[in-house]
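re: ur question from yesterday

yeah so i grabbed the chain u mentioned. its 482 aa long if i counted rite. heres the sequnce exactly as i have it in my notes:
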Amino acid sequence: MPNASILIADDSPLVLRMIQKMLEEAGFGVVTARDGLEAIEKAVAEDVRLVILDVMMPRMNGYQACRLLKTEPLTHDLPVVILTSRDQAGDRFWGLETGADYYITKDSEPQRILDLVRNILAQGQAPSRERTPDAQRSSVDILSRVNELLDRKLFEATILSEIGRVARGLDKFDETFIQVMTLVARVVDFSIGAMAFVEEEALEVALMHQRRTAPEALEDAKARLLEGIHASRGDRGFRRMYARLFAPAGGAVGTEEPNLGGWACFPVSAGDRLVGMLGVGGRAVGRMTRDAEAFLKQVANQSHIVMENSRLVERLRNLSIRDSLTDLFNHRHSMELMDQEFQRVGRYPAHAGISLLMIDIDDFKQINDSRGHLAGDAVLREVAHVLKDSLRTVDSVGRYGGEEFVVILPHTPRDEAVRTAERIRQRVEAHTFETGGERVRVTVSIGVATFPSEGIDGPNALVREADRALYAAKEAGRNRIA
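ran it thru and got these structure tokens back, copy pasting raw so excuse formatting
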């Protein structure tokens, strides 16, 4: 490509003259600049086909100039060669990160530099650009663009850093998810945000609405997220799907939005396998810039890693504190919760009061003996579901051992605890238990104990009193409360 103009930017007059002379003798036109800012001005103002940038220059270094050239619509297709006196891994990294097409050191043979220039131009990588009057940029325009770019990069780096800080500071999934999605909301002001965790046969979705939205909008968000997952993964369905809804600290704000508005999905992959997806919906999503979309792709990957780690920690913790058959708290953790409640009573005597229910399935041995242990396990799981559905969110229920369960009722006097026990007893008695296609009648006996009361001075004494009351209920004929 004879007479093609090549822009060279270097603050060393000696290096600049040497490369200029070599290229001019080879028949190329040469445009020179002494720093990165001047290089940007000339790249915009003149019809150059290739840019060679030194790294260390005043006012704006080569990396900054390269990044700006690659983000400016008029110059983003220009091939850029980074020229440096150092051959360090860090230089290569930043050269690639800023979008440079090639990297070469100053101590390379001059012929190697010339060969590289010829190859680039011969391959047609340097497009010819028609100049228009409005394509001119002043130094003020370029400095403004540089500041805008650097501000955005600082913002992006801050967001990614904050997501990393969340990973180091939290291990509870709900807290991690809310904080990460709050950071995502700084990139795009969504109404509903979601992160999906995709496994081979299971899909788990966490959603957060930071603005009040109609139930229809929430369902629309779920449907669109699922569509995005199917589009990225294929039409394979899931055997199990779970969804959890969260709100930011202080709750969702604003008047209720009837529609979802815009929607965007950002898949997260490990190799060629879809492992997650970030979804955001709302009016502002429909007005997202390309820069915001590109950045959200990075955010999606880092956010998924952080939340997936928190999710795995939560799973491991649950394995250590939950009974594998019923998914209730196990004996050890139930007793730890009892200790915590007594400590709370000590700190806040005005809110004193703990009640404990000890629950036993009546004649459970007969179910095992007549229908087998699989039927007995099914009954235990169903009773666990009835218990969970009968309690408040502040209450705790655990499997004490065998067919016995324990329920901890904070801030609950005895009369209220007895009403809760009666509600449980009635619901178990009315529930249809099916094992192997046959219906089984199941009842429970319940012992109630409350602190403070005479003779109870700690967790162990409360358990003993509830156990004694349970024995009394059994002796009185079962299917009753004592």
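noticed a couple things. The CA atoms of residues 20 and 241 lie 65 Å apart. also The chain has three domains: 5-133, 154-318, 331-475.
anyway ttyl
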